[in-house]
Amino acid sequence: MYCCIMYSKELLKGTLEVIVLKLLSEHGKMYGYELSQKVKEETEGKIHLKDGSLYPALHKLTKDGILTFEEVSIGKRVRKYYKLTSKGEEQKETLLDEMRDFIKTIEKVIFSDLKTSPAI
Amino acid sequence: MYCCIMYSKELLKGTLEVIVLKLLSEHGKMYGYELSQKVKEETEGKIHLKDGSLYPALHKLTKDGILTFEEVSIGKRVRKYYKLTSKGEEQKETLLDEMRDFIKTIEKVIFSDLKTSPAI
DNA sequence: TTGCAATATATCATAATATGATGTATTGTT
DNA sequence: AACAATACATCATATTATGATATATTGCAA
């Protein structure tokens, strides 16, 4: 599977989990491939969850009680539909709050311009 | 040296370099300890560059030609004042643009609310 | 004046995690 | 029949922040 990430790898670290939890919360239940397609679509290809990252993450989140899944047969193919547990819902809220706050703080440090915006 | 980071470790990954470059660009020249104090101050303690992260990063950036430094003796103590090279200035711009775009994209995926904002 | 906090640097083993490579198999299209 | 897309998976590697640890100076308060 090929990649095309617009951002340096480092920036994306830690983002995967938040994205997965947000999408699952929003759509109820989704399977791995569907998740990766959805992200690609919503970011116009800018973020691509690689399967080498996604599937291990889904396994880990399941092991940690954040997700559960049910297997659904589509012909001879088996899909694993994942959804949030109640613990997962809480975790999602925590991570979203954290991300919001993180972005706010980063913006303050990084995009402040001492020369032009002394106001506010 | 003690820590108190409000964010999960993962979120901070990749952020250190951008912060360092931005601050150096803004202040001309700074030494390691000064950098960590500045960040702590500007983020009200929310982000704390640990010396175990900062110094290796400064060494690496120097090795990569992004930074240079000059040693200044303050009494018996020696400070290393770092500043951006011209390559470092370019790198700073690149990383800032990347960060801007990254935040915009992440916000679109993560903070979109399908229920309340079908418009646009 | 003694001891502690702050200043200032540094290194290293460890942990976490995304990645690329690689593999298997099915389904739909040309 | 061949190929792209669908759908899952594993693993060695690379990157990087962290905590622990170390050294030494300086200023301040008891």
Q: How is this structure best described in words?
A:
The structure is a homodimer of 120-residue chains. Chain A has one domain: Winged helix-like DNA-binding domain superfamily/Winged helix DNA-binding domain (Arc Repressor Mutant, subunit A), CATH 1.10.10.10. Chain A has a 3-stranded antiparallel sheet. In chain A, strand 2 (67-74) and strand 3 (77-84) form a beta hairpin. Chain A has 120 residues and is of the alpha+beta class. Chain A contains 5 helices and 3 strands; from the N terminus they run ααβααββα. In chain A, helix 2 (15-27) packs across helix 5 (86-110). Chains A and B meet through helix 1, helix 2 and helix 5 of A and helix 1, helix 2 and helix 5 of B.
Main attributes of the structure:
homodimer, 120 residues, alpha+beta, Arc Repressor Mutant, subunit A, disordered N terminus, disordered C terminus, DNA-binding
CATH level 1 name of chain A: Mainly Alpha
By secondary-structure content and strand pairing, the structural class of chain A works out as alpha+beta
Whole-number tally of structural domains of chain A = 1
User: What's the rounded overall pLDDT mean of chain A?
Assistant: 84
CATH topology of chain A: Arc Repressor Mutant, subunit A
Q: Please, how many helices of chain A?
A: 5
Strand line-up in the sheet with most strands of chain A: 1-3-2
Q: What integer value in Å does the Rg of chain A equal? A: 17 Å
Oligomer: homodimer
| Sheet with the most strands, sense and barrel status of chain A | 3 strands, antiparallel
Gap between N and C termini of chain A: 47 Å
Low-pLDDT windows of residues of chain A: 1-5, 116-120
Instruction: Provide the succession of SSEs of chain A.
Output: HHEHHEEH
Q: Specify the helix fraction band of chain A.
A: 55-70%
Second rung of CATH, namely the architecture of chain A? Orthogonal Bundle
